[in-house]
Amino acid sequence: MFDPNRRRQLLALTGAALTAVVPGLMTQVRASDLVPTRSMRGGSNNYLPNAPIVKRIGEGGFWMTGTVRRAGDGAPLEGQRIQIWAHTTEGHERDPHSHGATLTDTNGEFRLEMPQIVPAFGQAHGHLAYDSDDFETIFLRPVMSSPKDKTLSAHFVLKPA
Amino acid sequence: MPRYQFLFVWLCLFLVSVLPVIAAGFSPLLAWRQPIYILAGFTGILALVLLVFQPLLAYTHLPGIYRLRSKHIHRIVGGSLILLVLMHVVGLWITSPPDVVDALLFRSPTLFSVWGVIAMWALFVSGLVVAVQPRISLRVGTWRLLHKTFGAIVVVSSVVHVLLIDGTMENVSKYVLCFVVLFALVFSYKNTRT
């Protein structure tokens, strides 16, 4: 019969092997069938529609970055308008001057310089929105791993409207 | 109680109450907040400080304060807690209405707001039990047990709420104050005298 210790070892090994292999298989499946991003809780809080496209929000010093891709094939989407706002060193989330928008480049990437995000309502976090006509509206609310970070990123996978 | 012991207890209580408030006054975050948001934060900190005293007052554990006096102050502190929590919530609501609505409806993305709202309701219920007690003729043991249970929920939920927040409180004074708040609760409930 099996020694219980050895059986435990085998179980642990099988578990480890599964955890190593299964996520790999799942990402392979997903690459060809990219699922749309879902809006995050509280993502639309203090949203102001039609934030203007700006070169920079306020005095800058902090970078919001990310990508926009199409659900399914994952093709990068160019010229998509992403709106960004946060509580920063220059204003509250509700202040219109804390809001701005930018467009994605040919690689579906966007980068917008903005003032340093500082913790508000218990967490250092930003807000992003896609709400143009071609795809379904998405609101994101990424949280910074440290309030000292100088950059924050968020990724959109959009589903045609 | 010997004089030095009396002074030591009150000195500790004084420091544990005042230092966290002073430390929060030096928070860099204040520079980027409007007065109403700052007020909302500080009413929360003051409420946490009062939680140290509330169970100690209920069971007459504060040196130099005798039974009737202690009970009387306990009631005043209880009313002040309700007032401070209302100011805290209204101040936050003025600062960012959707975040507070999310919190009150338990659909906030931040876990600490769930604990904050639980603490708020437990505080209201705890106060309500005292307010209606003479009218609905609850047995002394029953209302006392209810009041005590909800009081414990207030304390534990408030501490979790505070520990999960990245806000204006300085970390060391925050942890010490939270520890003292829990200690005051456990000490008072283990040494009940009415």
Word description of this protein:
The complex is a heterodimer of chains A (161) and B (194). Chain A has two domains: 1-32; 62-158, Protocatechuate 3,4-Dioxygenase, subunit A. Chain A is globular. Chain A has one helix spanning 4-32; strands at 62-70, 81-86, 99-103, 109-114, 126-130, 138-140, 151-158. The mean pLDDT of chain A is 88. Chain A is an alpha+beta fold. Chain A contains one helix and seven strands; from the N terminus they run αβββββββ. Chain B has 194 residues and is mainly alpha-helical. Chain B has one domain (3-190): Four Helix Bundle (Hemerythrin (Met), subunit A), CATH 1.20.120. Chain B contains seven helices and no strands. Chain B has helices spanning 3-25, 35-58, 67-95, 97-104, 111-132, 140-163, 171-190. In chain B, helix 3 packs across helix 5. The longest helix of chain B is centred in the middle third of the chain and has 29 residues, at 67-95. Chain B is globular, with a radius of gyration of 17 Å. Chains A and B meet through loops of A and helix 4 of B.
Relevant terms:
heterodimer; A: alpha+beta; Protocatechuate 3,4-Dioxygenase, subunit A; globular; B: 194 residues; mainly alpha; Four Helix Bundle (Hemerythrin (Met), subunit A); 77% helix
Count, helices of chain B: 7
Q: Main interface pair?
A: A-B, 22 and 22 residues
Strand line-up in the sheet with most strands of chain A: 3-2-5-6
Strand content of chain B: under 5%
Name the CATH superfamily classification of the largest domain in chain A.
Answer: Aromatic compound dioxygenase
Q: Secondary-structure element order of chain B, as H and E?
A: HHHHHHH
Low-confidence runs of chain B: none
CATH topology of the largest domain in chain A: Protocatechuate 3,4-Dioxygenase, subunit A
How much of the sequence lies in strands of chain A comes to 25-35%
The average pLDDT of chain B is: 95
Tell me the number of structural domains of chain B. 1
